[in-house]
Amino acid sequence: MESLSFQDLGLSAPLLKALEQVGYESPSPIQERSIPVLLAGRDLIGQAQTGTGKTAAFALPCLSKLTLNQVKPQVLVLTPTRELAIQVAEAFRTYAQFLDGFQILPIYGGQDYQPQIRGLKRGAHVVVGTPGRIMDHMEKGTLQLDQLAFLVLDEADEMLRMGFINDVEWILEQTPKNRQTALFSATMPPVIRRIAQNQLNDPAEVTIEVKTATVQTIRQRFVIAPPFQKLEALTRILEHEPFDAMIIFVRTKTATTELSDKLSARGYRAAALNGDIAQNRREKTIEQLKNGVIDVLVATDVAARGLDVGRISHVVNYDIPYDTESYIHRIGRTGRAGQSGDAILFVGPREQSLMRALEKATKKPIDKMNIPTSEDINQQRVQRFKQKISDALNHPDLSGYQALIHDFQVETGVSALDISAALASLLQRDQPLVASEEENAGSFPSDFASNERKAKKGRLEVSQNNVPYRIEVGHVHGVKPGNIVGAIANESGLDSRNIGRIRIHFDYALVDLPADLPKPVLKNLKKTQVLGQALNIRLWESRAPQSESPFREPFIPSDKSKKKARKKEFEIIAKPRHKKRK
Ligand code: AMP
Question: What pTM was estimated for this model as a whole?
Answer without folding.
Answer: 0.70
